[in-house]
Write the structure tokens for this entry.
Amino acid sequence: MTDELVTIEVDGRELKAKPGTMLIDVTDAAGINIPRFCYHKKLSVSANCRMCLVEVEKVPKPLPACCTPVNEGMKVSTRSPMALGAQKGTMEFLLINHPLDCPICDQGGECELQDVAVGYGSDVSRYSEAKRVVPQRDIGPLIATDFTRCIHCTRCVRFGAEIAGVRELGATGRGEHMTIGTFVEKSVDSEMSGNVIDLCPVGSLTAKPSRYKARAWELTQHDSVAPHDSVGSNIHVHTRNNRVVRVHPKENESINEIWLSDRDRFSYEGLNSEDRLTQPMVRKNGEWQEVEWQEALEFAVKGLQSAAGSDGDQLATLVSANSTLEELYLAQKLTRGMDSGNIDHRLRQSDFRLDGNDSPVPGLGITIQGIESLDAALLVGSNVRKEQPIIAHRLRKAAKSGAKVSFINPLWIDLHFEADQFVSTPAVMVDNLASIAKAASAKLTGNLAKLVKAAEVSETAKSVAEQLKSANNGVIMLGNQAAAHPDYSLLVVLASAIAEATNTSLSYIPALSNSVGAALAGALPHRGPAASLVEKCGANAQMMQSKPRKAYLLMGAEPGFDFWDPSLINSALDQAECVVALTAYHSESLASCADVMLPIAGFAETSGTLVNAEGTWQSFNGLVKPQGDARPAWKVLRVLGNLLDIDGFDQNSSDDVLEELKSHAAETAIDNSVSTKTAGELNSSTEGLYRIGDVPMYASDALVRRASSLQRTNSAEPAAVRLSANQAKSSDVEEEETLVVVQDGNRAQLPLIIDPRVPDGAVWISSALPGTEKLGGQFGVVTLEKA
Amino acid sequence: MTVFKNYIKSLFLLELLKGLRLTGRYFFAKKFTVQYPEERAPMSPRFRGLHAQRRYDNGEERCIACKLCEATCPALAITIDVEAREDGSRRTSRYDIDLFKCIFCGFCQESCPVDAIVETRVYEYAFEKRGENIMTKDKLLAVGDEHESQISADIAAQAKYR
Ligand code: SF4
Ligand code: SF4
Ligand code: SF4
Ligand code: FES
């Protein structure tokens, strides 16, 4: 085929197009509207609805524009009597079995069938016989179905097969008896399932959490950025009466295309949770009291000053990397203004031995879109599909076009593409990586050189090293479980050495929506704004907890759920004189240890900026008023700064804060370089039963933990002890038995589930779930006892 | 001469009599004053008075919470909140018409796909307290229940013109 363009004529307009392009793509690009139902630009062509019929000169019958390739000299008319007649006929057939009860349909007002019927259909129905009725089906708490309205466009089915990679919805029966359903009666559980709601042209699939909540015409649409994973998916937030009613994806080809993960789509429900803190609260004589802001702020300032006023090192600031850039910047400014260097956002990390030699601004290092053109990827400690669904979707595309993807993980993960998984206990993960390093003849020194020398080169290691070496465009990615690994520093140095030796690049998949921003804002003990190393290095998250300080400032983090070791942070906070918590929620876990709780605005309530995994800065506005007396966190920090008499706290808007930070960090890019070739001793061991504590998809932050519909999905499983069948036998325990888990003297009672995804020698106990909030670190030795 | 004419006119009060002739004519003519409240003016079936929400014969409320009336109301007088009832059907959990805002245009009735919201012939109502101007769903349904026979007769009479 030549690259030359052909000329076609559509409705008298001359258009140029590549030969072989489908007619509908050409007309869409030219802004000529052709009605359609089954065609969707992101899905394969199935050409089954026949709504897109147009007339083509010298062809006796109308042709479907979505599957008619263009060729030279083609003359098309989309509005000729023949085309209009064909469209009208199709419309009439479609409506034969479609109920005409738009007034009770949730899609009414934003329905493609309505629009097309008004534009291309007839005004009265000639059909008066009985219509088809399909029994209701319940496919889970996120998607409401009404398959009687289905027009069998199969977009949802194609989405499952082509995009989500799981065939969850399928069509059964033929002709009038064709119905859409889940194959095995159960629910739809994909982490991207919500997208079928947008794809379905009619009201057959609609959003359950926002069902009946509002009509399309009552909603105000605002642009914003999703607040969970580090992709920073662009979203439309729809509000009514100062409430967020629903969230839709906003098209951004370079970030989320047109997709949105369920977590980003449905987490807004957490905003209206009953747990919201709406009034400042202080603890007086052991009792929580609601007070005015003035009093609460003065209380907080007095507490901080008396505990850490004379010795800055007594102040420890722990912030969630889901906070905005502005908040993180002010938090570090306040901390450093109090003459303390103790600030950290890496609440889920335990190994900080690399600090100083670590990557200054860890991030993807490639663009999100660029993931698609990879030809080899090695992921270390990442359940990418659950943690970063959009990145996983891009990886899947790469894998589909031939990229070799492999994983070194402590757990088998469910994937929707072809990949090799090397699963072992955490300690052996390091050996596995070392063995790849050896196969790739990576250059290392000291300890690691010894480790690599001792490693055995397995066949798999050889093949992975080979794949990376032969790749033009390869990466080694470190995920959440690598970051939480007790030997993170070893993993990083090994990975960077392998990357160097194989001429691939080192890449981090940041965990939270502003992990990259936190590094830029300077929310680190050893690096200030723009990731410059500071002279006086403060204590890292681990040290702040293991050597308790007198005063703690927490922002957006819940002790039992957002920390690597809940028992450690709890005991540190219990010993403190003053704990000031900036929080959007009144959580048990904070109420038991804090002294002041200042209510801050949640997602969509505050303006701010998030920096995503590839380093794109994305700002957004506050869209609804914060609930009750809550205030944007940057304002709270600003006032705290003033009351503490620290210079440089007189910004009038979040934009001012952003400008100030930009003057330091606007030019700072992602930098994954690691400036050492060695690391310390191995922390993890193969002795005893080793806990693997991941963070489940719907437990990753305070907002999503309160999103009631997401919490009812099958993906939100309650805490349990998971063992492989072998391990259960050798530990002499049985399925469904209740066990007592003992970790560092902390105990929790949990049911046992036999799970083939866990390697022998390890036990999988997720963190951040009710039931595990009193246990120890995410990784570590545990013992199991019978209850 | 003019002076003399004017003198005669004012002496015999001719102008007054001229005016009284009109008064006299109406004095003896047939009266059209309606003795409200003992008497009532005739009323068109299209009269647009107080609103009502109707029910089906089996007692089920008609309104399906489609919000079309709310959308069409030019005075923004209608406020609706929707929820799924226990049986899953779409129903209003709140249906308020603010009679201070309403301009009695009848668009709500016009837009309703199930003839749920109607404007009745009732025009005798007054408010004594703030807040009484809001016709809630219960009040509207009560009006509907009370006047259903008249409402359905009116709708039937108008059916052929719609
Ligand atoms: S449920 Fe919706 S998307 Fe799926 S086939 Fe039916 S109309 Fe199409
Ligand atoms: S009569 Fe007109 S102004 Fe009054 S509620 Fe109905 S639509 Fe609104
Ligand atoms: S009164 Fe009629 S138009 Fe208004 S919401 Fe109810 S059904 Fe819809
Ligand atoms: S859009 Fe072309 S056949 Fe459906």
